[in-house]
Amino acid sequence: MMHPYRTHTCNDLRPSHVGETVRLSGWIHRKRDHGSLLFIDLRDNYGLSQCVIETTSPIFRIAEEARVESVITVTGKVVARTEDTVNPELPTGDVEVRIEDVTVQAMADMLPLQVNSEMDYPEETRLKYRFLDLRREKVHANMLLRTAIVTSLRRRMTEAGFTEFQTPILTSSSPEGARDYLVPSRLHPGCFYALPQAPQQYKQLLMVAGFDRYFQIAPCFRDEDARADRSPGEFYQLDIEMSFVTQEDVFEAVAPVLHDLFEEFADGRSVTPLPFPQIPYEEAIERFGTDKPDLRNPLRVFDVTEAFQGSDFKIFAGAIAKGSVVRAIPGPDTASRPRSFFDKLNEWAREEGAAGLGYIVFEEGAAKGPIAKFLDAARLEILRETAGVKDGDALFFVCDSRAASAKFAGVVRDKLGHDLALLEKGAFRFCWITDYPLYQLDEETGKVEFSHNPFSMPQGGLEALEKEDPLRIKAYQYDIVCNGVELSSGAIRNHLPEIMYKAFAIAGYPQEEVESRFGGMLNALKFGAPPHGGVAPGLDRIVMLLAGEPNIREVILFPMNQHAQDPLMQAPAPVTKERLAELHLRVVPPPKKS
Fold it and tell me: How far apart are alpha carbons 205 and 158 in whole angstroms?
C-alpha cells in the first residue's frame, strides 16, 4: 500500500525511476501554463521536482486553482524528459512526474512576499512572515548549513575527547560587560534570576568538579544593541573549557577543530594553515589599528611621528608636542587617481568624526599633495622607508592621541582595503590575538576597571598584581579572529582565591562584594581547583562567515529586529496586572519627553 503523502522526496527522482508510479508532497513553488499542459514545480525541504498535468485531465481544475505555496500531494508516473527540456541545473532535471491524482492538503492565501524569488523585502516584512522567508532557497540553505555545522562541531569535539554538558539558564547576574536579561522570582519577592551572558562560572565549576574537557553549544543572552555581526537578545557559542592546560594547549586543541570545520564547508575557499599566527594585542593595535584585524587586507599601519616632529607642518608638529602621534596608511598605486578620489576620502573622514585625511602622493622621485610642501627631502625619505611606499603610491595620515589615532587608522585601513579591492578573495584568514591588558582606565571616571574577562589569570600572578602598575599587567587572555570578525574571547582562568581577591580589589571590588557576587565560584576554588582555561567561538558568526552573509540575521532561524523585537511572535509584550502582581512587580513608565 502506497504511503498517504509520499514515496519519495522532491529531490529523489532520477532516470532509474522512469516507469515507476510515485507520490510526492510539497509546496507549489512555481506554475507554468503551456497551453495544453500545466507544469508545477513541487518543492520540499530536499529539492524540486517538475510535475505536469494535461488540461484535459478530469483533475486539472484542482491543480489549476491551487495557488503558489499551497501544499499538495501528487501521484503519477515518472517519465523521461525530452532532450531539449532536460534541466541540468536540477538533480531531478532528467525526469518529470505525469500527474494522475492530486490532493490539496492546504490552500495558501495571497502571499505577502514571494518565496520563489530572491527579491529583497523590508526587514519587518521578512521577520513578521519569517516562516515564509525561511522557505526561500537562500535562507533555507543557510539554516541547513547551520545544522550541518553544529553536527560537525559536535562530532569533532567528541572525537577530540570533550564531553558535552548543559549548564543552567536561570542563574545570577555577573560582570560580563553587557546588560543582563533579568527574570523576576515569584517565590522570592524582589529577587531576580539572570539569563546567562555566557556559562562562564558554570564551566569553571565543571573543571573544579573534575570533568577535565567540557563543551556545549551554549545559548547566551545579552541585552545589547544589534550590529551586522551581533544579534540582539540571544546568540549561541561553542563553549569550551579544559583542565591542566596552558594557553598553547588551548590553541592546539581548538585551532584544528576550527581549521578542519572551515575546510569542510569552505566550498573552494582557502583556510589559513595550522598553526594560526599569534599577534600580541599591542602589536595588533600598532599594525592594524584594531584587535580584530582582517588579514585578507595587505595594508599595514605605520607610526611616522618622527617625520613630522618639529616639521614646518605646524598642525601635526603642534599636536605631537602635546602628546599626539601620526600614523600612516599606504594607498598602493593611487597616484594616478583623480583629485576627486582624495577629496571624497577627506569628506568621508569628516563624516567619521575626524578633522580630515591628509595625504602625500609619491611620483617619480617627487612628492605632491597638500602636506608635501611642508616636509624636506630627509623627512619625505623617512616616510618612504618607514611605510615602504614606492613611486605611484600615496600615504594617508591620521594625527591624534595614541589610542584615537590607532583606532581611526584601522578604520582607514579597512576603507582603503575595500575601496581599492585589495582584500584577498575566497579566503578565511585566522589569527590569535594574545596578551590583552588585564585592566583599562575608565575615561569618564578615571578608575581602573577590567578590560576583558575578570576571571582571567594575570601574567606574573599575585606578584604582578602587588608590584606592577595595573595598566601594564597583561593577562592570559586571547581572541580568535577570522576575516576581521572576532569569533571568540578566551583565557586561562584565575583559579586561586588569593589572586582573585587581589585582582578584584584593584578594580574597586571590596572583599565582601566579591564574596557576595561570586561566592559559589570562590567557595569552589577554596577546595582545590585545577589550572584551567577555555574559549567560546560564536556559532552564529561562524555560520555567517561560511555562508558568505554580511548580516548575522541571515543565519538565525527567528532573529529579532534592530530594536530587539520579534515581529512574528510580537515580543516583548505587556503582561496582565494579575501576572505582575504575582511576580511582585509594577510597571513605572519612563517620563514623557518634553
Answer: 20
Task: Check residue 111 and give its pLDDT.
Answer: 97
Q: How far is CA 584 from the centre of its chain?
A: 38
Nearest to 534 by CA among 172, 158, 216, 170: 216
Residues 521, 200: Cα–Cα separation, whole Å: 10
Q: Is 62 exposed, middle or buried (0-12, 13-18, 19+ CB in 10 A)?
A: middle
Which band of pLDDT confidence, cut at 50, 70 and 90, is reported for residue 593? confident
CA neighbor of 67 nearest in space, from 109, 122, 13: 109
Q: Could you give the 3-state DSSP secondary structure of residue 134?
A: coil
Q: Which residues contact 41 (CB under 8 A, 6 or more apart)?
A: 28, 29, 30, 31, 48, 49, 50, 51, 116
> Which three cell numbers mark 378?
630627509
Element (H, E) at 143: helix 137-159
Give me 419's grid cell.
575601496
Question: How are beta strands 270-271 and 427-428 bridged, if at all?
Answer: parallel
Comparing C-alpha atoms, which of 398, 394, 376, 266 is closest to residue 326? 398
State if pTM tops 0.90.
Answer: yes
What is the DSSP-derived secondary structure letter of residue 551?
Answer: S
pLDDT for 225:
82
Residue 407 carries which side chain, given as an amino acid letter? K
- Pairwise CA distance, residues 260 & 254, whole Å: 10
**Dihedral of CA 133/139/141/147: which sign?**
negative
Q: What is the Cα Rg of the chain in Å? A: 30
Q: What is the DSSP string of 345-387?
A: HHHHHHHTTSS--EEEEEETTEEESTTGGGS-HHHHHHHHHHH
Which three three-digit cell numbers place residue 194? 539572570
